[in-house]
Specification:
It is a single chain. By secondary structure, the chain is mainly alpha-helical. Helices cover about 65% and strands about 5% of the residues. The chain has 4 helices and 2 strands. A two-stranded antiparallel sheet has the order 1-2. Helix 1 packs across helix 2 and helix 2 packs across helix 4 (about 70-85). The termini are far apart.
């Protein structure tokens, strides 16, 4: 069965995890794929899902989530996940 839906929050979190982990501030943290996956999943477990089935709704939902307040809210959960995974890596 071909996947016909997208979690917009997942797309945002994956992008931001990669951006944050490549920045100067988090260079002391492990950025292997296992740690990035753990950071992503921990972040997503602390954020709501926003599933859509069309590109139009994907764009609308992204626009709705792309406010300064929401960016701070999402970023805070990602940063927390970075620190948790950094403190308790599973490798």
């Amino acid at each position: 069965m071909e996947r016909q839906y997208t979690n917009v929050m997942e797309e945002i979190v994956v992008t931001w995890v990669n951006v944050l982990m490549s920045g100067m501030e988090y260079q002391t943290f492990c950025s292997c794929s296992k740690c990035k996956y753990d950071i992503t999943t921990l972040s997503l477990n602390n954020l709501p899902n926003y599933y859509v089935t069309t590109e139009e709704w994907q764009k609308r939902m992204f626009e709705n989530l792309n406010t300064e307040e929401n960016r701070k809210w999402i970023n805070k959960r990602i940063i927390n996940a970075i620190h948790v995974v950094g403190q308790y890596p599973k490798h």
